[in-house]
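Supplementary Note 3. Input sequence used for the single-chain structure prediction.
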Amino acid sequence: MMGSAYYSFAMENAHDDLKRVSRFIAKSNNDNGVVEAIKEVVGL
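The predicted structure, written as discrete structure tokens, is reproduced below.
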């Protein structure tokens, strides 16, 4: 599924297997990575 989606994100602290198949790596979930990734995608 991650390989099929253009906007496939894994968090920096995710398992290496997930990061390998994701197109983008976001900051750790401990560092507001989800918020930062959303801001980047929508251009904020």
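The beta strands are 9-11, 24-26. Residues 9-42 form one domain.
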